[in-house]
Amino acid sequence: MKPHLRRAAWAALMLGVSAVAVQAEMAAPTTPPDPPKFDAQGEPVFVNRADILEYKALPAYSQPEWVAAFEAAGKLPPLAERLPKEPLVYKTANMPDGAGTYGDVMRHVIGGRPEGWNYWAGQSYGWGGIDIGLVECLTRTGPLFEVNAADLQPLPNLAKSWEWSEDGKTLTVHLIEGAKWSDGDPFDTEDIDFYWNGIIQDAEITPLNGATAATYANATLTVVDSYTFTMSFDTPFPESVLYAMAYGNFCPGPSHVLKPKHPKYGGESYEAFQKAFPSDYMNFPTLGAWAIVEHRPDDIVVLRRNPYYWKVDETGQQLPYLDEMHYRLSTWGDRDVQAVAGTGDFSNLEQAENYVESLKKAADPNSPARLAFGPRTIAYTMYPNLSGNGWGEPDARAQAVRELNRNLDFRKAISYGLDRQRLGDSLVKGPFTTIYPGGLVPGTSFYDQASTVYYPYSVDSAKEALKAAGLEDTDGNGFVNLPGGEDLNVVLLSQSSYATDKNLAEGVVAMMSDIGVKATLSLLDGKDFDNARDSGKFDWIVLRNGTELITVVQSTAQLAPTGPSTDWNHRANGAGELDLLPHETQMVELVNGFIGTQDAAQRIELMKQFQKVYTENLDGIGLTAYPGALIINKRFANIPAGAPIFMYNWAEDNIIRERVFVPEDKQIDAELHPDTLPGKPGEAGPVKAN
Ligand code: GLA
């Protein structure tokens, strides 16, 4: 071969190579790197559920002396008559510091505000543990972080036991017998019937946290007697229903006050029903350990002990040990500041921006609070709205974004465009945050690294992916244009009440600008944000992950669009239609398969496949994951070791607050309403014995 020919052949070869190179410019997907090592402080002491509690009658019961004074004054029936036949008894051996003593207050600080007390019509109490303490549920999952894997099932609570029929299609539930609401009204299947028929089966009403018939596998509920009901299903053993009966869902309301206001039972209207128990309505009947006795708007909500509480310790002392609960109405950031300073008692340290300062303060041996990091369970996802058929009623601009969201190349562009390392470091430097591609959270029980597809940070790949999605910067202003010529403009919705949500969203906007995608931030607060989220009024949304991406067994149905309104980024349009993408259909099948089987090995396999489909298709785009820390004042006893701030539920549930106490020599003088109890529903504040 002559030299010049050789050169030509070489050039041709080069051309071929570069043509291939152009096509291959998108970086190959990989698996995410190992998270930096971060050891949780304090391991749980693992036990079986039966080691924690039982239901039984004790030879004698006792209560604080000042409550006995109410009996003496004829204002309260004797304690034995207020308690169930067989109260729920917490076992001493499972209490880290044993049976406690009465008195003192837990001073919470929260960023939300109570809208009113009609949780069943969707009213928020302000979060931060208020509602977790006020609405007791049929089962309980928060404390499961310390339950042995082999015994993993929800704890009984208002439901003291249950059994499946042989074919697995009927579940019989037995309620605790003789428990009473905080105003003395009996708790029984009348309350269950109202929850089911007045709330769950009524399409006009959505309770807070969104329970619907689908939450309970579309069961048929039948009341058998005052303390027994059955649920029948189409499929055998839908065990997830037992998890759905825990906090967030099957937490019945007091039918004796709710029912008369409900339009189906003679109430005026749905609106009037929702507003019937505004935030200045005091002593709203509860099954929780404390009831609301005072609300000063933007200042504080005060709760006093519920003299009818149905749980006791093994020595017969009626719970709770703490007489009062405070919820200071401030900001979420202030919760951290006050907890480390000792002016507040409790915080879920979850906003990574506050870590360094909080750690520094807590490291001082004289610090009033202890701070313990748990597993890496705080994670954030950015969801592209995947509805193409009208959920959230998009205008033309938003509809164009929806079409792009439904295009995998576009979603890849977003993922390639995110420098997740820098995003995490911008919150806090150190071994806290980890690269989180999305889906199941790294380090949790069903997570499998090898099944996790990660489109790594690469601006070139992002631009290539945009091109593949048909997007180019045709007017040279640095931002890609839509086919019509105008700039693509995506609106990113985020919460304004948490610094972390806002910072992450701002980071995303900046990184998108680097790849030529114009994104605009829309910040909403509290209930406004929740409404926009639930009604689909967003192009993209930044969300703190729910429990389903951690435990899988809790809120399982929310992992995919398994129903018209279960998924975070894809719900049905006004006509009830869901236009699922092929990968979403696969996800739904995998999730339903998981819900429908008890086979442990199969469940693991199904979740591997789920993770692969979810991350390969970028159903949600993971941002970052990091550990949270529980900050709690050192004077409190019975705080279980290794309690995570978030797993099956939030720490306010996990630490079993009704069992928490302050030893006498450490009690502080912080009660605002000493020696008082909740008064009559709707009447003013707390009452005295005399
Ligand atoms: C808010 C807080 C969490 C936790 C929950 C409890 O979401 O951010 O830390 O307190 O309320 O519902």
Written description of the protein model:
The chain has 690 residues and is an alpha+beta fold. The chain folds into 2 domains: 52-373 and 630-687, Periplasmic binding protein-like II (D-Maltodextrin-Binding Protein, domain 2), CATH 3.40.190.10; 377-626, Dipeptide-binding Protein, domain 3 (Roll). The protein is built from 20 helices and 24 strands. Strands 17-21-16-20-18-19 form a 6-stranded mixed beta sheet, with helices on both faces. A 4-stranded mixed beta sheet has the order 3-13-11-10. A hairpin with a 3-residue loop joins strand 10 and strand 11 (300-305). The N and C termini lie far apart (114 Å). Residues 1-22 have low confidence and may be disordered. Alpha-D-galactopyranose binds at residues 127-129, 132, 332, 348, 350, 650, 652. Alpha-D-galactopyranose binds next to loops.
Features:
single chain, 690 residues, alpha+beta, Dipeptide-binding Protein, domain 3, 2 domains, 6-stranded mixed sheet, 17% strand, globular, binds alpha-D-galactopyranose
Secondary structure layout plus pairing:
Layout: H1 3-23, H2 49-52, E1 53-55, H3 65-72, H4 79-82, E2 88-90, E3 105-110, H5 130-134, E4 139-140, E5 155-156, E6 159-164, E7 170-175, H6 189-200, E8 220-225, E9 228-232, H7 240-244, H8 255-258, H9 270-274, E10 290-296, E11 300-305, E12 311-313, E13 324-329, H10 332-341, E14 346-349, H11 355-363, E15 369-373, E16 378-384, H12 396-405, H13 408-417, H14 420-427, E17 434-435, H15 459-468, E18 489-495, H16 499-514, E19 518-524, H17 526-534, E20 540-544, H18 582-595, H19 600-616, E21 621-626, E22 629-633, H20 651-654, E23 676-678, E24 686-688
Parallel strand pairs: 2-12, 3-13, 18-19, 18-20
Antiparallel strand pairs: 1-2, 4-5, 6-7, 7-9, 8-9, 10-11, 11-13, 14-22, 15-22, 16-20, 16-21, 17-21, 23-24
Helix pairs in contact: 13-15, 14-16, 18-19
This protein binds alpha-D-galactopyranose.
